[in-house]
Design goal:
The protein is mainly beta and 378 residues long. The chain has helices at 61-68, 98-104, 137-165, 350-355; strands at residues 3-9, 11-13, 28-30, 73-74, 81-82, 108-109, 113-115, 168-196, 204-246, 251-304, 320-335, 344-347, 362-368, 373-377.
């Protein structure tokens, strides 16, 4: 796979912080620059080079010479960076002594770093947090006023609903009357005619006939058709990034490799069997039968306006039985003082009906504005 190599100029961010304690400089500088373009401080010795997405390919002969020269070196006396082509430190002006540097393990070249495809760092975060966007006081007040108005409206709505349907007031009342109603359902068992695919227990078959209950797929025949054969065929190549090298001098060496381009193309045909199915009806027996079923025959009721509730009398005929029983008990209440309410009603349980509530007894009623009694207290 053929490779193509190009050189691009990276960048570095100044991290110098003033002795006064102010924020870091944070200026973004061209990779080869040895000093910050903003504050003039020397490039830090722990510099991190990064390659922006929009970095352009270098075509200048001078820049290409610097890029290919190799990693910058650190002066053994002052630790400042110098270009690989320089033999004298630009800061302390002392000559470079390579053998002595290697012997005492000081100075020397900056390290080259190798990255995979699209793995080279593309930016370096600033040293201080980005300030939050300033919102004018007028806009903030308008926002808070809107939120406050919505909250007020919601609270007011809740208060109205509670006041109308849940809040109660105390009303002195006395028992002024009663109403009760009791009912019993009477069911009868009668023979009915039903139909279905089977006869349930207790049913007596009266008729049976075959009917279509559905369909099923049945193999009919086969047909042979030509089916195209497709394969991935190489139709060319394209250049893609296959790795980058941080040269240690502010430049990056980016390699591009030839990657094959494939396209799906028809390369022939083949015969395939296509099975043809048909739908055939499925038959089963459909039954008509007679069976006894329980149904409501009548409802016996008894009601009164006294305190002595009784169940209605009934006579069960042949093939009859008792069904559901139901009972309702209501106490009428008359306010004993001036009130906006007329006669009130209060539905009670069978147990309370039996043990409490006599004419003339007085209670404190918890009554909503709609006139509904929520509770009675002796």
């Amino acid at each position: 796979m053929a490779k193509k190599t190009v050189f691009k100029e990276g960048k570095w961010r100044c991290t110098h912080i003033d002795l006064s304690g102010e924020d870091a400089c944070n200026h973004e500088n061209p990779g080869p620059a040895l000093k910050c373009e903003k504050c003039g401080k020397h490039r830090p010795k722990n510099v991190t080079f990064y390659l922006p997405k929009d970095a352009k390919v270098i075509t200048s002969e001078n820049k290409l010479f610097d890029a290919k020269a190799g990693a910058d070196w650190q002066c053994m006396f002052c630790n400042y960076h110098n270009k690989a082509t320089a033999n004298t430190c630009i800061h302390c002006e002392r000559p470079r002594e390579k053998e002595y540097e290697e012997w005492i393990n000081l100075g020397g070249n900056l390290e080259e770093k190798t990255y995979g495809a699209n793995q080279a760092p593309q930016h370096q975060a600033p040293q201080t947090e980005t300030e939050k966007e300033y919102v004018p006081v007028k806009s903030r007040l308008k926002k808070y006023f809107k939120i406050g108005w919505i909250a007020f409206a919601a609270i007011a709505l809740i208060w109205v609903i509670y006041n109308q349907f849940y809040a109660t007031s105390d009303v002195e009342v006395e028992v002024s009357g009663f109403y009760w109603e009791r009912s019993i359902e009477i069911e009868e068992s009668a023979m009915v005619t039903e139909e279905g695919w089977d006869v349930p227990p207790g049913g007596k078959q009266t008729k049976r006939e075959k009917k279509q209950s559905g369909t099923k797929e049945v193999y009919d025949h086969s047909e042979w058709e030509e089916e195209p054969i497709y394969e991935q065929v190489q139709v060319g190549t394209q250049q893609v990034e296959c790795g980058s090298i941080d040269k240690g001098n502010g430049y990056f060496e980016t390699q591009y490799c030839d990657e094959p381009i494939y396209e799906e193309q028809q390369v022939g045909t083949r015969e395939v069997e296509v099975k043809i199915y048909r739908d055939e009806p499925v038959y089963d027996y459909w039954y008509t039968y007679k069976i006894k079923r329980w149904s409501l025959a009548r409802t016996e009721r008894e009601s009164g306006k006294d305190h002595h509730a009784i169940w209605p009398e009934y006579d069960l005929k042949k093939d009859e039985r008792l069904g559901l029983k139901s009972e309702v008990y209501i106490v009428y209440l008359k306010p004993t003082t001036d009130s906006d309410f007329g006669t009130l009603s209060y539905e009670v349980s069978p147990t309370d009906w039996s043990n409490n509530y006599q004419l003339g007894q007085t209670y404190t009623a918890k009554v909503t504005k709609k006139g509904k009694v929520k509770e009675l207290i002796r």
